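Design request, tokens follow.
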């Protein structure tokens, strides 16, 4: 029996009416590097080695691109310790929620074409999401105060659950099983629409299944299945030839093993289970917008370089520069103080499928980074970020579960230097 736990689908997050790409673009904090970031290969090498030696990771790799050149690539440890396979450049890694930015790009391509407005009700295109109910805090439900807008599914303010919290809505989410691999995206939408919202749309930020709804919306707008659409419009044009949801059995030996941290703090190889096999299962019907892509590090670096370059790479335009800026702008109103775990990511807000840094690091333990950077990560501790101020992007691959934020802290300190604060912005 096919089954997928929600954790396999997870990773670690009002402006005026917009109906066409030329509509309002929120102001972006001006971020000019206060001092150039010099990539220190030995420092990054040492950081990767320390991750493995400390037992926090079995294998890691990192790639840094700056000023139009690859400035660093390195690995440490094993992709599969038991099989004796080292972490290599072509190792395939499950990136889980780093799939979300790819889905966001696919949807925003359609926005550029004028296919929808950001502040249109989601139910205009997906009528199953009309008349949503909200948990009322007294064991019952009530009608939502306003419709879910398409903007809400891009910034995690729709009110959807992801089954990660201890609420009645999360219990209903688990019972509905929207992310069961036997569902296609249409069935996912039908089931999710029957789950009460955590809060009224636009009232809070809560990480959710909204990116899977983005994938369903892409299917509705294009009349094409989501997976081949993304392949044709993003993966193939960018030369991401080894990135896919669906994998052949011949690819399995290249797939990095997942290592789970036990009660003793030691990493043990995860059994070959749904979380590793889902991409190789011919009976899978679900292509999640929020997870599921498997990629080598160079492929994902091509995606992040496209974003760094303002939407194009090697002469191929995926998005307009203004659209990338829109996605990489904080869209959370300051009055939206309930943001669940987002503050754990540092001094950030949230754009469209990206966290966005809006202040310098505030404490010595906060991740190093520059104002204006945007990023996201994945369930098994993978990470990427785009830093326009320093013309830099970095990708980090690892397969450690549960999510270990110390790996990100140490990599960023190695890339920037432990005391880096970067520009102040506006």
């Amino acid at each position: 029996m096919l089954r997928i736990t929600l954790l396999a689908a997870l990773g670690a997050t009002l402006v005026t009416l917009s109906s066409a790409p030329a509509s309002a673009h929120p102001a972006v904090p001006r971020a000019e590097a206060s001092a150039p970031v010099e990539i220190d290969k030995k420092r990054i090498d040492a950081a990767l080695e320390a991750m493995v030696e400390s037992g926090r990771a079995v294998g890691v790799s990192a790639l840094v691109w700056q000023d139009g050149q690859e400035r660093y690539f390195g690995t440490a440890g094993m992709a599969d310790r038991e099989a004796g396979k080292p972490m290599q450049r072509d190792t395939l890694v499950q990136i889980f929620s780093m799939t979300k930015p790819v889905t966001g790009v696919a949807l925003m391509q359609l926005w550029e074409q004028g296919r929808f407005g950001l502040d249109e009700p989601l139910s205009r295109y997906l009528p199953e999401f009309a008349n949503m109910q909200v948990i009322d805090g007294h064991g019952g439900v009530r009608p939502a105060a306003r419709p879910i807008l398409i903007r809400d599914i891009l910034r995690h303010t729709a009110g959807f659950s992801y089954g990660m919290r201890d609420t009645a809505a999360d219990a209903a989410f688990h019972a509905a099983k929207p992310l069961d691999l036997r569902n296609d995206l249409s069935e996912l939408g039908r089931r999710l629409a029957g789950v009460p919202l955590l809060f009224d749309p636009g009232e809070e930020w809560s990480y959710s299944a909204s990116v899977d709804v983005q994938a369903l919306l892409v299917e509705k707008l294009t009349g094409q299945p989501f997976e081949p659409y993304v392949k044709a419009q993003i993966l193939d044009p960018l030369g991401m030839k080894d990135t896919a949801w669906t994998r052949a059995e011949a690819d399995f030996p290249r797939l990095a093993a997942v290592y789970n941290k036990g009660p003793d703090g030691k990493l043990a190889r995860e059994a070959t289970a749904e979380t590793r096999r889902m991409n190789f299962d011919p009976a899978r019907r679900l292509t999640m917008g929020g997870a599921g892509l498997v990629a080598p590090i160079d492929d994902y670096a091509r995606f992040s370089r496209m974003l760094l370059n303002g939407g194009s790479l090697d002469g191929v335009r995926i998005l307009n520069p203004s659209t990338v800026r829109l996605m990489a702008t904080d869209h959370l109103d300051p009055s939206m103080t309930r943001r669940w775990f987002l503050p754990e990511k540092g001094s950030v807000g949230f754009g469209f499928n990206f966290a966005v840094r809006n202040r310098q690091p505030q404490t010595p333990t906060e991740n190093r980074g520059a104002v204006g950077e945007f990023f996201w990560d994945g369930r098994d501790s993978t990470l990427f970020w785009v830093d326009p101020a320093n013309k830099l992007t970095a990708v980090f691959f690892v397969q450690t579960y549960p999510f270990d934020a110390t790996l990100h802290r140490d990599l960023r300190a190695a890339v920037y230097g432990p005391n880096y604060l970067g520009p102040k912005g506006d």
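Comment from the thread starter after seeing the answer: thanks! Residues 102 and 234 are 8 Å apart (CA to CA).
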